[in-house]
Specification:
Structural class: mainly alpha
Radius of gyration: 16 Å
Strand order of the largest sheet: 1-2-3
Strand content: 5-15%
Shape: globular
Largest sheet: 3 strands, mixed
Distance between the termini: 17 Å
Number of helices: 9
Amino acid sequence: MASSLYDITVVPYRQTLGGLVGVLEKGADYCNEAGIDLDELVNFSLYEDMLPFGFQIFACALHSAGSLQSIEKGLFNRPDSLPSHDYAGLQQLVADTCETLDGYRRDQVDAMAGGEVLFAAGDINLPFTTEGFVLTFSTPNLHFHATTAYDILRLKGVPVGKLDFLGQMQLNK
């Protein structure tokens, strides 16, 4: 079976973001019960030179729905400034990102196959094929940032596991 661009973007992006919805919900519930300040969590980093939890969630949106928008434009730029969200705002960002992904039709995404995407940041210009951009840039970034957010929640004691992270898998029915 051949995989289409839709199969390697929307389907796994939606799975990862769907898992993130549940992980964030469990995180909020746990932190509220344990008296952990959600604003402190938003600004928490695993290490001093790493970006905080809030950025990790923002990057998940950027490397999923934002990736598809970049494919449509043929250009990926890092944002000029980073939005500031509280925990509830991050949850809403993920919900909105899921809604955006759900709005893409298979034929619409598949029609973007075979194109080019330029990563442009300052003096750096990296030309990708659409598929190369998805498979070697956006998908690895999405998983890196989702894992980092998950790890921050685990470090804070949130009782989530691998199945929470995985979200809704595609099972043979």
